[in-house]
Request: fold
Amino acid sequence: MCGFSGFVSYDKRLTEKDLQSMTDCIAHRGPDSAGYFFDGICGLGHRRLSILDLSEAANQPFYSANGRYVMVYNGEVYNFQEVAKKLEVPMKTTSDTEVILEAFVEWGPDFVHELNGMFAIAIYDLREHELHIYRDRMGIKPIYFYQKGNDFAFASELKSLTKMAFLQGKLTLNKQAISQFLYVGYIPRPNSIYNEIQKMDSGSYALVTKNNFSLKPYWQLEDQVKPEVITDFAEAKKELKALVLSSVKYRMISDVPFGTFLSGGIDSSLVTAAAQANSPKPVKTFSIAFEEAKFNEAKFAREVAQHLGTQHHELTATHKEAMELAGQIPAIYDEPYADSSAIPTLLVSQMARREVTMTLSGDGGDECFLGYGMYNWAERMQHPLVKAFRKPIGSILSRMGNRSQRAAYLFQYPSASKLKSHIFSQEQYMFSESEIAALLTPEFFEEPTIQEDWEIASRNLTPVEKQAFFDMKQYLQEDLLVKVDRASMKHSLETRVPLLDYRIVSFALNVAPELKRHNGVSKHLLKEVLYDFVPRELFDRPKWGFAIPLGNWLKTDLRYLIEDYLNEKVIGHHGVVQYSLVHKLKKEFFDGKDYLYNRLWLLIMLHKWLEDFRK
Reply:
């Protein structure tokens, strides 16, 4: 796990100083070494966090044996040893870096199909002056890029690109991105908060040549859907268990100490159980707790750790620690980002880094195996009576108590074509499309359009499967994986996600929905695999997720954020939203409409970022 940056400038407008500045600002991603390549046209910068082959021989930029190519790379390829055997090329190191580059030399651009891992790869052809860039199938590792004319620049984080001298003072706010952020809490690719910078799509390959830039997919989720689904439970369970054990074993390959994030939930417990099953000694596990009992799952994590025999570490987070981190989120994530679970993720990453350099995480289980409550809404909304009378139902609910008022928003979707994004938005208590139209000033309003339908020719998905597919394409990649990458790398910690091995993702897409949700039990298949390792009694409780008591904190310790960033002066200065509606929202929240807390958090994160951007 590392950080990289670079560019090609055929008019030679970018300099070695630009490269140094771009790379140094992401030193947190790789504190072990720094490396640079510059030939007047291309610059490649790298910050290394040493995980495999800790010697200097594996430092980057890395040159191919034939001397024609140079590469920088962020991530890990777990099957590199098998790929090396296929190559039959003598290796100078024991790192995956060398294997990746020699595979490209041997097999050309299609080499990427041989790789199982999380990766962002940039390979420069010194002879042809062409740049090849690859992003992993599920978008676990980030790539941001700027492209205009004969200039192309890329980096692991936005802050690297905003450091380029010739971009400073020229970046403009992406108005559609602001609307999207208020709608779903993140900014979906290809957008970033800046009009000039984009996010590279997952599973894609870019080729940069003089006078040409091309970007095309090499792997897509929609192509993994098969005409027939697996309906036999025993067969599905056997295959999933084997895949999980294989995936976790791959991700335990490391030359540094590692552990797992263990929340006590299904996904992290399964990953931890598989890791312990593959390990001859106790695996180190890490969990975070909060003082508020409702959000404290630490005792469940403790019970799982005790049963598995792990070496468990636990931290109880205080209000003070959360307060210190809340104001740092915009700077860490470089653009408006509203997932408040970034706070516990930052805290548990900081704790884990004291003991290990690499961790395993359970991300992906909910999307692959139908774990979210919102999937019930996807099903309900397709009922003929609900479709016919949704507006009267919503009107009645809006006049009832807080819980019913929250539900009322779900019935008020603008059209069937926007139902999936609307369900996500309102399940997360964010602004609806109609609210955004009223909230944003005329200068900043753009419709928060988000792609939610993809061409899947092989099979008609059920409403629940479609909602989960939307989450796999959007929420998982643009929110959850971003959260983990920035939070862990802030503390120079590599985090691997075994449940997003592309083999598991492809398998999950073709398991019958009734095996995933059975008799009202979500993640049924995944749970049954887990129960081969840990007693089911330990999980007989409601799902909380990796949440913080944000609503309570905004009324107490974090109230200062409302006062500092949602006052009339700050709102008026930026002119993005109407202060009268912000004032009304604040009043309703403090008068008892607790469910509005996430709307306030969105506005806080937006204006905190705008204040930083202005400075």
Summary: The mean pLDDT is 92. The chain has three domains: 2-219, 226-370+465-539, 549-615. Residues 226-370+465-539 form a domain with the Rossmann fold fold (CATH 3.40.50.620).
